[in-house]
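Human: My hope is that you can spare some time for a protein that puzzles me. I am handing you a single protein, as its sequence and its fold in C-alpha cell form. Could you go through the record with me and say what the backbone is doing? Take your time, and here it is.
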Amino acid sequence: MISVLFAVLTALSNGTASVLQRRAALEVPDSEAMRLSLIGHLLRQKVWLAGIGLVIVAAVCQAVALATGPIAVVQPIFVIELPATLVVAGFVMRVGVPRQVWLGVAAVTVGLALGMAAAAPVGGSEYVQGAAWIPALVATGIFEAALIAAALGTSGNARAALLGLAAACGYALTAALMKDAMSRLDADGVTGLLTAWQLYATAVAGVGALFLLQNALQAGSLVAVQPMLTLGDALISICYGVTLFGEELRTGWWLLPQLIGVALITLGCVVLARSPLATAKPAPPPRVS
C-alpha cells in the first residue's frame, strides 16, 4: 500500500509539473529547440521553476515507491498522470473540465485497476544481477538515438510525440536505475548507496529525460506529448521489471483481462488527448507566475 500511495503522489506531482512546464515552454522561441539555451530561457520563468520543484517532489515519492514495491507495479500506476495533467490543465489554462475528460479518466482508472489485478506482478530481485545492465543500456541507447534522429527530421506534434516517447524511455530507465541504487542502501547503508554507479547514472538519465521532455513540450501540444510519455513510461518500465529484475506477470487466461485493461487505458488516453483541455492554450494572464 505504501508503494501504491507514493506512486499515486508521484503521478499527481508529475502531471501538475507537465502543465506548468508546458505553459513555460510556450514562451520559448522555436529557434531554441534541442539547444541548451532552451533551459536558460526556462530558468527565467517562475512557472517553470515551480514545475521543477514538483519534479523534485515526484522524484522523492518515486524513490519511496520503488524502494517498497516492484517496478512492474509502481510504474504502470503512473498512467493516471495523463488524466491528472488534463484536470490540472483545466484550472491552469482556464478551461472547464468537460464530460469527455471524466469519461476518459474513468476508462484509464478502470483499465489500470483491471490490468494490474490481472497481471499481479510478483517476485523478482531488489537489485539487478550480474552484467544484465550492459545489454539493457546498449538497447536503450540505440532506441533513444533512433527516436531523437527521427524527431530531428520532423516538426510540430510529430516531433513532440517522438521526443515524448524518448523522454518516457529516459524516465523508465531512471526508475530502473533508482530502484537498483536504492537496493544498495538497504544492503550496505549510505556508503553502499554513495559508491553505487547506479546512483549517478540515475541523475544523468533523469537530467537527459527532463531535457527531452522540455523539447517535446516546446515542439507540440499535450495531445502529442502526454499519451506517449505516460503509456511509454509504463510499458517500458514493465519491460525493465521483467528483464532486469526478474519480476513475473500472470499468463494464460489472465492475458485476456490484461489486454482488456490495456485497451481501456488506450481508449481513455485517446479520448483525453482529443479533449479541449489537451489542445487548449492558456488564457492571457497578467503575469507568468
Summary: The two ends are 35 Å apart (CA to CA). The first helix runs from residue 2 to 25. Confidence is low (pLDDT under 50) at residues 282-289.
